[in-house]
Write a structure and sequence with these properties.
The complex is a heterotrimer. By secondary structure, chain B is α/β, with parallel strands linked by helices. Chain B contains seven helices and ten strands. In chain B, 41% of the residues are buried. The termini of chain C are close together. Chain C contains eleven helices and no strands. Classes of the chains: A mainly alpha, B alpha/beta, C mainly alpha.
Amino acid sequence: MWDRIIFAAALAAVWQAGSAWAGPEQISSPVLVVQQIYVWIASGVLLGHVGYTVLEAALGFLIGAVPGLLLPLVLRRHVFLAAVLDPFIMIGYGLPKIAFIPLFIVWFGIGIWSKVALVASVSFFLVFFSTSEGVRAVDPRLLRMAKVAGASEAQLLRTIVLPSATPFVFQAVQIALPLSIGGAAIAELISSNRGLGYLIQSSAGNFEITGALAAVAALTLIVALTNIAVAAAEAQLLAWRPQMTPSTPKAA
Amino acid sequence: MTCEPVLEARYLGRFFSDRATQSERWIIKGLSFALHEGEFVTLVGPSGSGKSTLLNLLAQIDRPSAGEIRLHGEVISAPSRPGQSAGANGRIGYIMQDDNLLPWRTLRANVEYPLQIQGRLDASFRKRVDELIAAVGLNGFENHYPHELSGGMRKRASIIRTLAYDPPVILMDEPFGALDAESRLHIQEDLVRLWELGRKTILFVTHDITEAIALGDRTLTLTKSPACIRGEHLIDISRPRSVDSLVTEPNYPGIFSRIRAEV
Amino acid sequence: MSQSISHIVPEIAEPQLRRSVMPWLALARGGVAIGLLLMWEAFARWVPDLIAGPLPTLLRVMDLVRTGEIVSMVWATTLEAIGGLLIGAGLGVVLPFVVQMSPRLSAVIEPFAKTTVGIPKLALSPILIMWFGIGLTSKIVLVALMTFFLVFVATFVGIRSVGPNLIRTVAIFGAGKLEIAREVLWNSSQPFVWAALRAALPWAINAALVGEFLSAENGIGYYIHHSYNLADITGVYAGMVITAALVLLADAVLRLFQRRALAWRPDNADQTLH
């Protein structure tokens, strides 16, 4: 523990010293960044930008993740349809969504909806693939047992498939949520007039390195808080599992 | 031939500190025994009796808290001495319960690996590897990767991998524990046959009394924790033994019940 | 741990279908493909300001090929992506081997590595452009940052995943620390490294593109952004089709290398990272 604190302090000290040497207008300094964040919080500026970015991320995530979660459950019973769609969804996943930002802006304007569309397109595929994997990983013996007991498809989904797939869904959420926040901010970099990404880009545009770094720090903080929240939710929901990490790559 | 034991443990002890009670918990205490040239000794003990701890000490993976270990009379391990390298420079082989094959090497490359890192892989050792592979019926599978082999085949490969580099002493820690009864029987017979060809000195740990009797010249038993040697039993059943029909040997029931009484 | 490795590399699941339906499967997939193209065309006719049809897009790409413009822009972007990937992934593979030498150092580094993985690196691009200029360097640094953490954490986890008994067994054969690192840790971490590389590759191209959107003189991203500024929707589409082709092609090539490097693994081994 002390090792870590010393290491963190050393990093900050090196940065501070470097700033004294190279000039704060070049690389800013930890003290300046903390000051800047404080000023922004006090004036309420930060909250507005944070709220905007989080709203984009949350809306986009919901619009993408809900179909991404439901579609594999439907396709479970339609093996042929799933096989037909598979390569298209693969390509869709592989497409570089960040490169499509200008397109989203053409379609949905420079306001909130172009960012929501980007985030939705990123989260859909992540959740879809992870949930599909989870649905495939359901123990067939459990399914047979439930069928013999007379469970309907809806009961089967609710009592067997969904609980078994939950760790996989969480895995996708863990990946998709930070990417959603980051993705929203990146879209804001390219064209926006609000949000943390806009704050980074406008500060950098005015050669205010401290402002840009403070906005990145705020973004990192939000991502870290999201990760903690997801981990807590997972611990709550998956208390029945012996081990928290989904399967590691299977050894030969 | 000398009377000097190949491997000897004298008053060996190992404790672990118990953080909760701030005390020392002895797993092994005052344990002594000797292995002589060409002997196949089996060791039986109740589960949790420190068998693996003992083997780790002997293999030089772990250091003793008390006592000493001698190899050909030379002290190789004692609390006061700087430790030897694991395996005492290739002089002690150790076959564990998992096969521990390197999954990215083919069967042949796995068997050759110890020789390769010891810088001894020449034409004569290559021939030895060929012979060992043939002796356990793995010819034709030399270029297969471990995941392409059955559990029994992997186990055979891991045994001949250690035999190939010819360490004077070989330790085995319940090596057949994970196998099904059928392959276990075959591989036990293979092991005895290999041993009779080369007469290595072997210490074989198991919790299966029948296995201990089938394989060993002598069987040692361990006490409950902290472990030391409780009894010693000569297995006076003539070789070659058929593992399958061991129970029909007249001496078998007596030996079995005497060992059974101790563990 | 899972959020730190952070990307999923999906594989097409072997469809559990009878052989006899296979021709129908191909037919159905072809049908869906044609259907998607027709939909694209229909939308293009409906809102021509927002969507360029498949044919004009294709013609524009062919134009770019004929004039040779495509070569210079693909080259610029590829150079940024590959240059950054070499630096980022190279350090990401090598550093964990240095760090693992000291358990104490590993324990110190781990939480910091996880925190830095959480920083949206692409958000740093305006700052990097301030520091390194609008040329090649800032994009290479951005790509390197983007890919370094992915590969670093995956390699680190790969090294940590090696069973202690495998290391002990090899040590008993007489292997020293260096030999153990070279033979056991290196090979064991390969599946993790390759999965991370495949996850990192699209991000390398994405990062290069974001850098080019923000400020550049060449590259696919520059072309897309420039077309966007000229309200040349066909140009935007052509740029994106080229990007998509580049990403899919690069992934196919990487996949080939991955197959070769990991030939020792069972075919059905899960190559995704969790």
